[in-house]
Amino acid sequence: MTPLQALKLYPKAVGWSVLLSLAIVMEGYDIVLLNSFYAFPAFVKKLANFSLMAGLSNGALVGEIFGLLIAGIASERYGYRKTMISALVAICGFVFIQFFTPNIETLQAAYILCGCAWGNFQVVTTTYA
């Protein structure tokens, strides 16, 4: 079957696959966005500790590793749909923590938690689609 035939035969499946894959697009955007905060004067004034900047970025990557591990287990136990929905709800709360962070330690925790959700997106979206 050619891709065009599959699109004509299964338009809803292709649409849902594209929609779910947008979570991966959001994950890539979020990672770039978090690293761009280091250039803002307000961020540097309030939270900058230049020796910890690499730790912030790496914390998100460590969280992604944990998210990859957790997503496999959770999707097998609870299903892809529930795992994806719980990760989407969780990322809303984790972004809230980042937005209202009072110090760099809380920001680091928020980056790690967001990384867990992003790792979940990497596993669940491709296998579910």
Short note summarizing the structure:
The chain has 129 residues and is an all-alpha fold. The protein has helices at residues 3-9, 11-36, 41-47, 53-78, 80-99, 104-128.
Structure notes:
With 129 residues, the chain is mainly α. The mean pLDDT is 89. The chain has helices spanning 3-9, 11-36, 41-47, 53-78, 80-99, 104-128.
Instruction: Tell me how many strands there are.
Output: 0
Task: Tell me the Rg in angstroms.
Answer: 17 Å
Helix and strand content put the structural class at mainly alpha
Residue windows where pLDDT falls under 50 for at least 5 positions: none
Number of helical elements: 6
Distance separating the two termini: 18 Å
Largest sheet: none
Give the amount of beta strand, in percent.
under 5%
Helix content: over 70%
Shape: elongated
- What order do the SSEs take from the amino end to the carboxyl end, as H and E? HHHHHH
Features:
single chain, 129 residues, mainly alpha, 6 helices, elongated
Please render the helix and strand layout as text.
Layout: H1 3-9, H2 11-36, H3 41-47, H4 53-78, H5 80-99, H6 104-128
Helix pairs in contact: 2-6, 4-5, 4-6, 5-6
